[in-house]
Amino acid sequence: MKIRMTLLTASLLLAGQAMAKDVPLMAARDIANTTTPASASQSFNGLEAQALSSLRESLKAGGSSIERKHLEKAAQSSTQADSAWLKASGYDFRVKENQRAGIELLSGFSKLPAPVLDLNLKTVEAINLNATESLRHQALADAEGISYLYFLSDALGPRLGKAFIAAYDKGELNKAAALIKATEISTGEAKKHFNYKRPFLIEGNSIHQVPDDVVVKDNKPYAADGGSFPSGHTNTGYTDSLLMAQMLPERFDSLVERGARYGYSRIVLGVHYPLDVMGSRMVAQRNVAHYLNDPAYRKLFNDARDQLRTALEKECGTTLAECAKTQGKGDPYRDPAMKEFYRFTMTYDLPQQQGKAQAVKVPEGAEVLLEAALPNLSAAARRDLMVKTALPGGYPLSGETTDQNFWQRLNLPAAYAMARKAK
Predict the structure, then answer these.
(1) Contact 168, 308 (CB under 8 A)
(2) Which fold has domain 26-334+342-352?
(3) Most C-beta atoms within 10 A of its C-beta, which of 4, 56, 272, 381?
């Protein structure tokens, strides 16, 4: 039984709370659906099919078919990722230290009132039950391709996306592939700390568990184990997307929006709540900025970026600026509606708490996230953009500390769009 959006909207009107109504749930669904094989673009759909085919071939690992056990052991091949190069560098990612920082950043979760958590579940049910078949298919591909970078290709546009898949499978991007995956700081410790039950395990829930008829094709209902908050897959999606956006600023906003779209897939499958993906966005943004401000990491990043850009220009047979261009209406991630979708995913229409909002204060070094995309702006100008385009204060997970307030409210695509408009 589907939840009627009018009834859900009525339930959102909690006493004493203001709502974000920029994009209703059903409108967000329709925007997200354009970034699936149901899009109106043949070239984009062809790219999606190529990404899925390449993912399935990688999962087969030389075999004739995919079994569920292949998902459990999935990892980039030695051709795809140069792990030896990364290991030889001796770089220390300080995983435990950054995991503790992530838990502190999300500590406001434990203080959220019951009505917000109730609405958190209702929103999952609404998105999950009203998802189109194409949204479910894309969500399965996103979920079961977590160990690879194929999902990034559709945010690159049909031409550059195909070049990316070809170069990735040839091992021409192997430094970037190794570094990006190593930068995904596990959310496992945070999951243990918050110990929040997944939505499909809540008593009386109406979640539809989606059968896999896309990747493994055994029709087994998709599930997930461990705690729900924050989302590990979304942390992967945002980390990978943010780092690729730094390497390919020609597609900056599309790539950042792909991180949000990846998180949305987790809700479509009914295995995560909006708060789970919102929290992972905060953590991934913080982590990527932290690493990019480390000179030792930056040296590795620059080597990986240069290799990637050289390889993609070779595959494209032209400049990256030309290869990354939008071709007519065949590039859904360049649709202005994706900015609205991104804004929606910053709150998922959860209630804004009334009260005195904190002023936005940009943490030292956070402006690095706009450096590659806006190289001609000073650090001060980039910080100013982050403040001017920040989400209004008071939404869940923001406001407890200066860092929580900033990382929850940071809207990178909006900051980028404001700068581009000013040119």
Answers:
(1) no
(2) Vanadium-containing Chloroperoxidase; domain 1 (1.20.144)
(3) 272
